[in-house]
Amino acid sequence: MDAAFTAEQDEIRRTLREILGKRCGPDEVKAAVRTADGYDRELWQQLSRQLGLPGIAVAEEYGGVGCGPADLALACEETGRALLPSPLLATAALCVPLITALGTDAQRSALLPSLASGGSTAALAVPGPALATALALTGEDPAGQWSGGGRAGGIQARADAAGEGWRLYGEAAQVLDGHSAPLLLVAAHAGGFARSRTLLFLVREGAPGLVRSRQTVLDETRPQARIQLRDVPAELLGAPDGEGREADVLGALAATGRTASAVLAAEAVGAAGRALARTAEYVCRREQFGRAIGSFQAVKHRLADLYVQVQAARSAAYYAAWDPDQGGLALAQALEALRMTAGEAIQLHGGIGFTWEHDAHLYFKRAASDELLFGPVHRLRAHAADRAGLFGPAPAAATHAPAPAHGPVSTVAAVAASSPAQEKVAV
Fold it and tell me: Cofactor(s) for this protein (predicted)?
């Protein structure tokens, strides 16, 4: 295995960093999140046209770039570094893999090209605060009870009277980019107690009975919406086989969760690295008692500890991009590194770090919001330990990719050493 980045990957990173450096500064981020969509549509189209950003992990036959999860993670490290508000995560990391895995040929041909080109976006709607459970990040629910479980609440699906379609009713409260995406992938419970199962459905913008409202959230760079479904017509994603069995929706969601966790880990590492670099730059500039505060030993120790933590998280994220089965641990490491780095950034910036005008709070809110959505860290680690059988037999359904010949530690060390993206921290 060659752990170094390819010339194409380095070029993606360089071009993306250059564009975001010009178009996605702190003021631009704050302006973008206050628009109706919650992101800069013009910048999104530029990233789609020049880099094919939303189509990185889409097969070429559907108009995508045809790269893999590692390339998407690499791009998300740069978007995380700039805290880019965009539908990239909801569309490319969550919805595209599900449509690719479960959709019929006709559905893939109809949906993926527009998603890959940036002409359309998609959002995954799961009921309640259950996104981490649905993606099997913090635990597994073989029965899919989080979708409704045949009881009141959740989102319920029933076949219409003619037997030619489905109707959905229920509510999803935390849908990433759900207020602006023209296409919704809705996870719903069907079959009642007799044939209880979780299915995925396609709901288009403007469907009768669909009510969407943007929510006030902690992290404005990750806009969320409340989706209400009032007897909404929907199309089943995929088709039953010859015996009437639907596809393994829960398995596809878990597989998507493993890839998404690697992407999220890379994004968090990018944010943590940028917050650390900016803090190191500030303490070298800020003077107190006639000398830069970065020259004090106590400050040096704090920054050195953060640097080690961020670099460890970066190595874990790169390894997870190669082996998504390690995504849960990498995400836990990255979220912890981002939380610690963002908190220290506020402290070391002193009085200005607490102000609304400074952007240190944006990194702290991203850390807190991601833990609420995809964590918490201790549950991510506990689930990874359960899957690995650390405290007992591993579940039969758990699968693990073979370790590289020269071992994971040397692999991530080689990847981290080869990366040109490491933030320079020198105090």
Answer: FAD
- The two tokens of residue 114 are 């527009």
Q: Are residues 263 and 242 in the same domain?
A: no
Listing DSSP states for 403-415 in one string gives: PPTT-HHHHHHHH
- Taking residue 372's Cβ as centre, other Cβ atoms within 10 Å add up to 16
Q: Do residues 310 and 367 touch, judged by C-beta distance below 8 A? A: no
Half-sphere exposure of residue 82: CA atoms within 13 angstroms, side-chain side = 24
Co-location of 138 and 199 in the same domain: yes
Retrieve residue 80's tokens: 């995380």
Pairing mode of beta strands 183-190, 155-159 = parallel
Is there a contact between 38 and 177 (Cβ–Cβ < 8 Å)? yes
The confidence score (pLDDT) of residue 423 equals: 57
Q: Peptide bond preceding 233: is omega within 30 degrees of 0, i.e. cis? A: no
Is the distance from CB of 156 to CB of 170 less than 8 angstroms?
Answer: yes
Dist CA 93 CA 260 (whole Å):
5
Confidence check: pLDDT of 419 > 80: no
Total H helices, total E strands in the chain: 14, 9
Q: What is the CATH number of the domain that holds 175?
A: 2.40.110.10
The packing angle between helices 377-388 and 327-348, to 10°, is 160
Q: Has residue 297 got a pLDDT over 80?
A: yes
Beta bridge partners of 213: 226
Give the separation between CA 98 and CA 251, rounded to whole angstroms: 10
Strands 224-236 and 197-204: antiparallel
pLDDT on residue 139: 84
